[in-house]
Design brief:
The complex is a heterodimer of chains A (109) and B (937). With 109 residues, chain A is mainly alpha-helical. Chain A has three helices and no strands. Chain A has helices at 2-20, 25-45, 67-98. The mean pLDDT of chain A is 89. Helices cover 71% and strands 3% of the residues of chain B. In chain B, helix 34 (743-765) runs antiparallel to helix 38 (851-870) and helix 34 packs parallel to helix 39. Chain B has 937 residues and is mainly alpha-helical. Chain B is elongated. Chain B has 39 helices and four strands. Classes of the chains: A mainly alpha (109), B mainly alpha (937).
Chain lengths: 109, 937
């Protein structure tokens, strides 16, 4: 299972990096979204994987997942959304002011 | 406490004065004077201690664990400087009231002056060296503001920039010196540093320490070769020049020399560096001053020269020389401040400062002329005025030094030459301005200034005379305690008398006086000679060239790495990250796979992972068809939340799921205004290059994840698990961490969220974008009204959805849920209304302005934290209790839940703010399409 997660993180990162290297704003935003998936999963996996051990205190529980990475990732997801929103609005603003959606604001076409 | 209050009073007073100035110009002046007096009043009860020989240290614990305290110190030297700062400060405040014209903002000048006063007091009253440096930098900053007071003038801005660059760079060097001092002595407390002079002088790092500290002192005190900023700082209003550039700020440098005298002096390095620079500055300043046609320019170079004199005295380094140095600090502050004020009066009355035009003012303002002449006599070192006494001591020290070394006789000769020039330029100041024929083409007809503008000059000139005639009765006590605290030891026998008999020093004075008069007599050929070489003699040329070279170098470096291409920067950044990761990996000897037992793979997980990988690759492959890519990325997000479900993170799964919904809606809204397709513009070579890099980076991150996942570890999580119920009153440990254990972090995070919402609002406010009329295939948008079934259902669903989010919010402390998730669910429920019913329908039923909601949320979260502060606990301490509600049963109520409510409100407000305003953009675009009416099919 660990291999599967590591592979998924790797694929998400690779896709994110490739899209982030594109020259237009929208793929760039998609790339950032991928990268935040990858980073969140990576951070989360720092607490190692466990099945059926949610960090909610119960009398019957024998083991709990590590709550610290979870707390970190929870806020990271929300902040990630705010960042995506900010970047995409910035892209709109750039399009309005520069007339194109190239990341450097120059359009060869 | 008093010392802290005395230093803080001007800082707080600056705000007060800026506010009071709206009621009138005199109000501002009274307020500023009141503030300076208040600072003086705080000091008064402590004055007796230094006179009794005690050093007063007051400290306020700040971070005791790190050994950082706010520590203030009052000894003789500090008291002397505090007296100069506050006393002359009061006179300058009075003077400035009449100097500034109606157009100039009174409040701004006084506010800056008080800022400077506070910073300066901080410098002279600090016990901790790091703290001293902070105030030191504050004096640089506030003097920048003061020099650039007339900000519409190019000269003022340039002068301010130059002063900041030079003194700021010196401050940086001083920081290095102080850190070294701290390393050598093991303490940043002055008491310790001053007592360990022998250790410092014997230390191998003594020379670097000395050079760095001296760089700080020399830049501040305008010593050669850093002297050039001071004349350019004369673009400041004259009260500022009188205060900063003669009496106080430039004295901070010599103050530092005096302060650290016991710790650093007494070595050949000290003598040569400090004495040499002092002597050069003394000569260059005195020489240049004679040739300045600008009244303030003459005074500026004279100040440089006198600062050089003081530096030279400390460089000579005998106890008696140190006494003379302190004495000259006092005398120079008094006569130079009055001379600047007189120059300001002349400028104010005639409208010019050019001495080639200002002549014969005696007939218009005899009273001011008399005052200025007394002060100028002090500057020249004429008997019966204060400047004479310290200059005699200085001459005597120079003679004493002559027998100490080879070619020592050069020193008395050099200082006599400087004395000759000092007499000549003082004579020029008097003769050229008040006599020498008739004024030429003055912009205004001069007459005596307003009564109160003369009072500060009168006070200072009176002091010149009192000190000059009755030194032992007036200045001796404060000089004695100040000099004793400079020396940190017994005071040498010194005799403040006007007549010492026919000593060599007296003859030097006589030569200087006679020579000065003769030199001034030969001025015309000298001016002509100087004018020929003037353009080569400006140190500013060197500064400008250096600055230009530095800027060109910086630009070159930037151009080398930043060609203005984001893609290129990202590529470089990722390549380097990869390289560093690889180097790090090569350096370690550990195996990739750790010993931890692995979980078995099951079919469903395998399927989900395949879906994730397939969808990701599909997004990349189809990314030019943007809408398709967007739908596919939704799949990826869904699988990510499934991963959270599988591996025991219910909170994360809920958050990811709801964020996924709002993200997709957001991207859809934005996509409407962007091209529907990405053009294929990258070269295939570049695409494969990028593909290789991304595979490498992905592989690296994957390998890293694998390496971590297969290794055992211990976590601080156990602490939270053990204390969650007993300490936080909740069973959901993730939520308890968020709202209780790490509540401060969360407060920061929701602030970021609120700021992002506001920033997006600001960016969208003025934005006008035209959406396309057709979709990418040329079909017109579907102009159907809102589908009836969807509209009805979402309206029915709304109360249910809100109820669910309330449930999630309330149970969040004990079960998966909480403010973040509940907020997102609420936002999704409300967004659904916009999507299904359109903006107008929803807008008429819901508040469109989200600012109050965001603000309320932040306020609730902050107030919850402050509440615990009020009860004497640290910020954001939570408390909880059990409540028995009928029907519901036992119910746990924690104060952290109020905090969670704040989180909830901020999340709802910020999310809706972003989406609604993006949606409203659709309404503004001119065509009939509005949010939800057509959407993207």
């Amino acid at each position: 299972m660990e291999a599967l997660i590591a592979l998924s993180i790797g694929v998400l990162t690779a896709c994110g990096v490739y899209l982030a290297l594109r020259g237009r704003t929208f793929p760039m935003v998609l790339g950032l979204t991928f990268l935040s998936y990858a980073v969140n999963l990576f951070l989360f996996s720092m607490g190692r994987l466990g099945i059926g051990q949610p960090p909610v205190i119960r009398a019957a529980a024998t083991a709990y997942a590590d709550p610290v990475p979870q707390a970190l990732v929870l806020t990271a997801i929300v902040i990630g959304f705010a960042m995506t929103a900010f970047v995409i609005v910035l892209a709109l603003k750039a399009r309005a002011e520069l007339g194109n959606d190239h990341v450097d604001g120059l359009d060869e076409s | 406490m008093n010392l802290l209050l005395a230093v803080l009073t001007p800082f707080l007073g600056a705000i007060l004065v800026a506010w009071v100035s709206r009621f009138g110009r005199s109000h501002a002046a009274w307020a500023a004077g009141g503030v300076a007096l208040a600072a003086l009043v705080w000091l008064l009860p402590l004055v007796s201690a230094p006179f009794a020989g005690a050093t007063l240290v007051q400290r306020i614990a700040w971070m005791p664990a790190a050994g950082l305290d706010l520590a203030f110190r009052l000894d003789g030297l500090g008291l002397l400087f505090a007296g100069l700062i506050l006393g002359i400060g009061l006179l300058v405040i009075l003077y400035a009231r009449y100097y500034l014209s109606e157009r100039d903002s009174m409040g701004r000048l006084y506010a800056y002056l008080l800022l400077f006063m506070g910073a300066m007091l901080g410098v002279v009253l600090s016990e901790n060296l790091i703290q001293l440096l902070m105030f030191w930098e504050l004096t640089s900053l506030s003097s920048f503001l003061l020099i650039a007071y007339w900000r519409e003038r190019e000269q003022a801005r340039q002068g301010a920039r130059m002063a900041l660059a030079v003194t700021g760079a010196g401050g940086l060097a001083l920081l290095g010196g102080i850190l070294l001092l701290g390393e050598i002595t093991g303490s940043y407390e002055l008491s310790v540093v001053l007592a360990s002079g022998d250790v410092i002088r014997a230390h191998p790092l003594y020379l670097p320490t000395l050079v760095l500290v001296l760089l700080g002192a020399f830049t501040k005190s305008a010593q050669f070769p850093f002297h050039f900023w001071l004349p350019h700082a004369m673009a400041a209003p004259t009260p500022v020049s009188a205060y900063l550039h003669s009496a106080t700020m430039v004295k901070a440098g010599v103050f530092l020399l005096a302060r650290l005298f016991p710790a650093l002096s007494g070595t050949p390095e000290w003598t040569w560096l400090v004495g040499g620079v002092g002597l050069l500055t003394l000569l260059i300043g005195a020489f240049t001053a004679l040739f300045k046609h600008d009244l303030k320019g003459l005074l500026a170079y004279s100040t440089i020269s006198h600062l050089g004199l003081i530096t030279l005295l400390f460089g000579i380094g005998t106890p008696l020389a140190a006494v003379a140095g302190v004495f000259h600090i006092i005398n120079h502050a008094i006569f130079k401040a009055s001379l600047f004020m007189a120059a300001g009066i002349i400028d104010h009355e005639t409208g010019t400062r050019d001495m080639r035009r200002i002549n014969g003012l005696w007939q218009f303002m005899p009273y001011t002329a008399t005052l200025a002449m007394v002060a100028a006599a002090a500057m020249a070192g004429v008997p019966l005025v204060n400047g004479f006494l310290s200059k005699e001591m200085f001459f005597a020290e120079a003679v004493g030094m002559a027998t100490q070394m080879r070619l020592g006789w050069l020193l008395p000769v050099a200082v006599t030459v400087a004395g000759i020039f000092a007499v000549a330029y003082s004579l020029r100041f008097v003769h050229d301005v008040f006599f020498n024929g008739q004024p030429i083409d003055l912009p205004r007809t001069p007459h005596e200034p307003p009564r109160w503008m003369k009072v500060p000059v009168e006070v200072l000139v009176l002091l010149c005379l009192l000190v000059g005639i009755f030194p032992a009765q007036t200045v001796e006590p404060i000089l004695a305690v100040a000099a004793a605290s400079v020396l940190q030891g017994p005071l040498p026998r010194h005799d403040l008398a006007i007549w010492h008999g026919f000593s060599p020093a007296l003859w030097m004075s006589v030569i200087a006086l006679v020579g000065g008069v003769l030199l001034y007599g030969a001025r015309r050929p000298l001016y002509a000679w100087h004018a020929r070489y003037e353009e080569y003699l400006d140190a500013r040329l060197v500064y400008d060239a250096l600055l230009r070279a530095l800027l060109a170098f910086a630009r070159g470096v930037t151009r080398l790495f930043d060609a203005g291409s984001l893609q290129r920067m990202l590529f470089l950044f990722l390549s380097f990250a990869l390289l560093l990761g690889w180097i790090g990996w090569r350096g370690g000897a550990a195996a990739l796979t750790g010993p931890r037992a692995l979980l078995p793979v099951d079919g469903v997980s395998l399927l989900a992972a395949c879906a994730l990988i397939a969808a990701s690759i599909a997004v990349v492959a189809l990314h030019r068809r943007r809408f398709t890519a967007l739908v596919l990325i939704g799949v990826v997000g869904l699988v990510v939340s499934l991963i959270f479900v599988k591996f025991s993170a219910p909170d994360l799964a809920l958050t990811q799921l709801s964020v996924e919904v709002v993200t997709v809606v957001l991207l859809l809204l934005a996509l409407y205004f962007l091209p529907q397709h990405t053009p294929a513009e990258s070269h295939p070579m570049r695409r494969s290059r990028d593909a290789v890099l991304s595979l490498l980076v992905g592989g690296g991150v994957g390998a890293l994840a694998w390496a971590v996942l297969t290794r055992p570890y211990t976590s601080m999580g156990d602490y939270f698990l053990a204390n969650s119920v007993s300490g936080g009153g909740g069973g959901n440990v993730v939520n308890v961490i968020l709202v209780d254990f790490r509540g401060f972090d969360t407060l920061g995070e929701i602030t970021v969220l609120a700021l992002a919402g506001l920033a997006i609002y600001a960016m969208l406010e003025k934005l006008r974008l035209d959406g396309p009329l057709n979709d990418a295939e040329g079909r017109a948008w579907n102009r159907d009204m809102h589908p009836a079934i969807m509209a009805s259902f979402t309206r029915l669903l709304l109360p249910l959805a809100l109820l669910v989010s309330l449930f999630i919010l309330l149970r969040g402390h004990n079960q998966p849920g909480g403010g973040f998730i509940a907020g997102l669910v609420t936002a999704v429920a409300l967004i659904m209304q916009y999507l299904a019913n359109g903006v107008e329908w929803t807008h008429s039923r819901l508040p469109g302005n989200m600012h109050p909601i965001i603000a309320t949320g932040l306020a609730i979260a902050t107030l919850t934290g402050l509440g615990s502060l009020l009860l004497g606990y640290p910020f954001l301490t939570s408390t909880f209790g059990h409540l028995h509600w009928p029907l519901v049963g036992d119910f746990e109520l924690a104060s952290a839940m109020a905090f969670d409510l704040g989180v909830y409100l901020v999340v709802v407000g910020a999310t809706l703010q972003i989406l609604i305003h993006l949606g409203l953009l659709h309404g503004k675009t001119g065509d009939a399409l509005t949010f939800g009416k057509g959407g993207l099919q």
